[in-house]
Model the fold of this input.
Amino acid sequence: MEINDQLAVNISNLGFHYQGNDGVVFSGLNLQVKKGERFGLFGPNGAGKTTLLSLMTGLLSPAEGSIQLLGMDVHKHHNAVNKLFGFVPQDFSFYQELSPVENMEFYGAWAGLNKQQIKTKTDELLHILGLENVRDKQVEKFSGGMKRRVNLAIGVMHNPAILILDEPTVGVDVQTRYAIINYLIELNNNGTTLIYTSHQLSEAQGLCNETALIDDGKIVAHGHIDTLLTEHKQDSLEHLFLELTGKEYRNDV
Amino acid sequence: MFKLWATIVKDSRILWRDGVGLALMFVMPIVLVIVITDIQNSTFQLINKNKLPVLVCNRDTGTSGKQLVEAINKIGMFSISELPRGQDEKMIADSMKKTDALMAVIIPVDFTRKVMAKSKTTAGKALTSFGLQADSAQKDLGDVSPLTLYYNPVLQESLRLSVKGALQSALQLVESRQTLRTLYFDINEKPLPSKLEGEMLNNKAVINDLPVSVNGSLKPPNAAQHNVPSWTIFAMFFVIMSLGGSIVREKTSGSFIRLKTLPTNYLVGMLSKQITYVGVTIIQAIVIFSIGIWLFPLINLPGLNLPQDVFGLFVVTVLSGWCAVSYAIMVGVFAETHQQSNGFGAISIVILAAIGGLMVPTFTMDTSLKAIANVSPMHLCLQAYYGLFLENGKLGNVIGYLIPLVGITLGFQLIAIWGLKRKNLI
Done:
């Protein structure tokens, strides 16, 4: 396969289905994300967004095709690729019995950082994300917004080249959303490629420059947001979304 | 190494904050070991010191009935309360309830007459066989009327049988004495001298019971030597309540997803859990052994004597703990929920303890169950501990139990790794 050193993500001819489930999630899917982009992946419930992120992060293995992050095959070079990206799952992915500092000490070590790097990065991130005064308190007592910030802090500890975020602002107040989005933009300005999913399309429109709309395992639109809005004569990402995916309820079982 | 250390620190912190898990792993087994040792010790004291309360209703008016009561008294294991001879069965049952007596013995009305008649018949037969003339006028009145033993159904069968055996020996003494007196009188036409009677009846061979030990020590094991190792093993396997739940929580919460996206193999996490929790099992053993050594004597329980081979004790403790932790990890890997892990974990530990001989000795089991017990992990741990604590053996003497124990432990580990791979977790 030809390696394009301008691509952060290169998905080609991807096929996937869940074991014991006859339905095909993806078949022949192709998608490229350039380095340095703020890329939004949107779609209704059950469209395949979380499955695609799981395949990109190596949590699931494709039946066919390949996924490369910065030119390296995710499934062939699992450990090497894992150093390149950070993942902020939709669920709170840390130990609620521990404090933010204790979580970051542990996850930092697993990300390959040494003791000094962990300390420096922990102090920096807790300051940026406004968690300094609760750094030694158990996370289980935190509000949802504070937990979201801890979730994000752990995901970026090792300065990943690509940051994959699955609905990072779900259930948070306006202040927390503002802080998280601003921090993501700052990260992107420093060279981190963002891959982001959300149902908050107005928020996404402000954050992302490139987007792909996915429905029923297929990409129904892909390109720069402004270009797509112009092409489809829509004034917002939300209207574009409804035009391309319809207004019917989606029951994701 | 730093990753492993960071993971051990993380696991230790989570464990330290799991108050319920710590209570289950430490408080519960400590309470168990004290209560069970106290109960077993009380059973021993009941027979040897406190004496078993028994009601005796002597309906016989002759000498043999009185002699039988004296003989029962002399056994030394009963505290006798005599009931008026006119009491019927219902009144005796009521008296048992009122006095908390577990048993009542009824000596029948014609006891002396029957004992006398029986002794004359037996003496006559003996004289005839010696070639002497017997009293031909004596009729055979048949066997001595049976004594009746009422017992409270709560009394365990083993204790009831040992009481029955003791009564039987008292009865035999009364019958033998009377036969001997009759025989002596028929031959010598004068009563049997009491000194000779005493020598003939009481001069019995003594039984010396000695424990078998590897180093020839004759110190008899006490209830603490039996119970402390048993319940220490039980405590070790109870780490499943904390460890199994911790693995399930890690799997079902998002933390596991993030771990899978980091450049570290989850086997590091598994190794950390083993080191942390084997450490916990060693602490459990130290705490429970310390209670046996220092606390038991303060609360009038027999103190625990440590085996001579302390290194052997350490090795057996580490391997028992490793087996317990491996079992907990295996259950945690396959359980889908915290409830499954805790429910299955607790029940399976009780079953393993029963099969392994922690609750009932394996020598009382039938052949098929005994065969299962011989390959059950708790039984192997227990036999290794008993080899050190009860037989004063060394590590070399119990290695035969430790090799299969390590084999079972590795089996648990392989099944856990297979489970992790099957679930796409490593």
In short: The beta strands of chain A are 7-17, 24-34, 38-42, 64-69, 72-73, 85-88, 162-166, 193-197, 210-215, 218-224.
